[in-house]
Amino acid sequence: AHIAKDVVMQKSLTVTGSTRLNNSLDVALTATIGGDVRIAGGGNLTVTGSITSYGLITHNGPMIVGALVADDDLCVTGSLVVKRDAFVRKSLTVTGSTRLNNSLDVALTATIRRDLEVTRNTYLAGEAHIAKDVVMQKSLTVTGSTRLNNSLDVALTATIRRDLEVTRNTYLTGEAHNAKDVVMHKSWTVTGSTRMNNSMDVALTAT
Fold first, then answer.
1. 72 and which of 8, 56, 110, 174 could share a cystine (Cβ 3.0–4.6 Å)?
2. Taking a C-beta distance cutoff of 8 angstroms, is the pair 123, 105 a contact?
3. For residues 36-47, b (16+ Cβ closer than 10 Å) or e, as one string?
4. Average pLDDT, stretch 185-189?
């Protein structure tokens, strides 16, 4: 499907092949797309229900969906808002901020240029690169390494299998489990227990 302007669906949208839009996509219920999704014009991608894509999703504007399942990479140039769960089977790249009202599951690398806020659990099998603040209302689990250019705030348990590097403050209300090195350029505060299998380097205060 190649559409030059806006698409508004009052119910569901099903496309077995690829979809390319030059402007906005608005679906009231569920959107299921068998191929790649590309929205090039900087318009909105809004799906009130769930969106399921079996190909690559590339979007140059803000994206607001109920639930998200992406079998391939997801690349959003604007902001990403997911009201329920988000499952990305490959990499997630967001140039703007990301806000999820439920859980986030990414199989490969997650790269977020601005803030990341998740109200429930976050599972990353690969690496996490986040340029600004991270706020987790529940637990954070990263199998690969994690690099944050700003602060990290986790309400429950933070489990990171490889290196953790944070350039600003880190606050953990629950436990912290880290398998490899931890480098903190500012302060490190843990209310619960802390278990480190390797070295820990904190530039300022460690509480």
1. 56
2. yes
3. bbbbeeebbbbb
4. 75
Classify residue 207 by burial, with Cβ atoms within 10 Å: 0-12, 13-18, 19+: exposed
- The residue that leads in pLDDT, 82 or 7, is 82
CA atoms of 89 and 48, how far apart (whole Å): 21
Structure tokens at 106: 């990414």
b/e per residue 59-70 (b: at least 16 CB within 10 A): bbbbbbbbbbbb
**Distance separating alpha carbons of residues 152 and 98, to the nearest angstrom:** 14
Give the residue from 77, 80, 22 showing the smallest Cα distance to 51: 80
Contact 122, 101 (CB under 8 A): no
139 contacts: CB under 8 Å, gap ≥ 6:
121, 122, 154, 156, 157, 158, 159, 174
Copy the structure tokens of residue 136. 């987790």
Sequence letter at residue 65: V
Residue with tokens 């429950």: 156
Average pLDDT for 139-146: 85
- What average pLDDT score do residues 132-145 get? 86
- Separation of alpha carbons 26 and 156, rounded Å: 36
Phi and psi dihedrals of 95, rounded to 5?
-75, -35
Beta bridge partners of 8: 26
